[in-house]
Amino acid sequence: MTTVSACEASTHLPRLLNRVAKGEKIIITKHGIPVAVLQQP
To answer: I need a surface site. Which of 9, 26, 31, 41 has the fewest CB within 10 A?
Structure first.
C-alpha cells in the first residue's frame, strides 16, 4: 500500500492508475489526512 498527496496524485494520475491496475492499493491524502483510496473494484 502506497500513500501519496493529492497534488502528487493529480500530477501522476496515469502512472498511479497503472500501478492500481497491477493490483496495488494507493491512499490519497490531503494535508496528511487520508481522503481517498485507489484500488481495483
So the answer is: 41
Cell of 6: 493529492
Q: Are 39 and 19 in contact (CB under 8 A)?
A: no
Whole-structure pTM value: 0.89
Mean pLDDT by 10 residues, the chain (41 residues): 96 97 98 97 91
**Cell digits of residue 38:** 485507489
Residue ranges making up the domain that contains 20:
2-38
Distance of CA 37 to the CA centre of its chain: 6
CA 12 to chain CA centroid, nearest Å = 9
